[in-house]
Automatic annotation (TrEMBL):
One annotated Gene Ontology cellular component of this protein: membrane
Top-level taxon of the source organism: Bacteria
Lineage of origin: Bacteria, Pseudomonadati, Pseudomonadota, Betaproteobacteria, Burkholderiales
Taxonomic source organism: Zemynaea arenosa
Domain EAL: from-to ranges: 23-276
BP GO terms, sorted: signal transduction
Record's keyword terms, sorted: Membrane, Transmembrane, Transmembrane helix
The protein's name: EAL domain-containing protein
Amino acid sequence: AAKQRSEGAVVYDAVFDKASEQSLSLLTELRTAAENDEFRLHVQPKISLSTGAVVGIESLVRWHHPVRGNVFPDEFIPFAEQTGFIRVLTRWVLDRSAALCRELQQQGIHIKCSVNLSTRDLLDQDLPAKFNDVLARHGLSPSSFCLEITESAIMDDPVRAQQTLYRLHQMGVDLSIDDFGTGYSSLAYLKRLPVNELKIDKSFVLNMENDVGDTKIVRSTIDLGHNMGLRVVAEGIESEAVWRLLADLGCDQGQGYFMSRPLPADKLADWVRNWQP
Ligand code: C2E
Ligand code: CA
Ligand code: CA
Ligand code: CA
């Protein structure tokens, strides 16, 4: 029996070791990636749906892996969160976004830059100070930025997350609720948090011209946002028909492949100059 037990333990340990070995090596890989400059900043334009003007960008990180090629955020962000590496990454994204925003301003392009925050970022008491530091170094005002947060990022520790968000809000940065409508308590957060913007999740937008249910949800969300004095943004606009529909419903801004896929940061200025709505 003892042998069986110890064999069982061996099997269990082997499985455990394999899992922890894998995550250890992924963490090492992420750290190496940062040292070797393998992360890339991509940005997707945010467009005014009534005028067609470029009003902002959203920063979306990519990992250009020497062997695996381009790794998409869904494959490494969750892991970066688990290990705490996300704090390093968020700081990098903030810094690069600020540098881009400043460059654009110098070329006469004045737009707001949105950056995604995750759970760990909201639990980081030093985030407002770090953010301030980034702004100071690039000579930017907080109002050039919008920070996007999801409900799941808030849910882990709502009290602490709320404290961080109030401090950021007091600094004058815009806050946005991302993936709105996909969680269970988005409405509660909308009431409690100092937000300026609501982003309708792309799952309601992608196919809305063929789906009456989606259209109803989107229409109600736009009205809800406006009744609360918020800017409403739709993501996942893949056709002109959806743009028109959203504009008719009064949606303020939009993002999507119809206008542009996320672009490497250094391609943005040219894209803006060539953009014709
Ligand atoms: P998200 O914040 O909801 O970003 C929107 C995602 O929708 C992006 O995927 C974008 O490329 C994609 N998208 C934009 N327009 C369209 C469209 O018309 N059709 C379709 N089908 N998709 C569209 P991406 O870049 O793969 O990012 C996935 C998620 O990874 C993001 O979702 C965000 O949660 C996370 N993420 C990306 N960059 C960062 C980052 O720097 N920090 C953090 N914490 N999370 C990030
Ligand atoms: Ca986002
Ligand atoms: Ca989203
Ligand atoms: Ca999302």
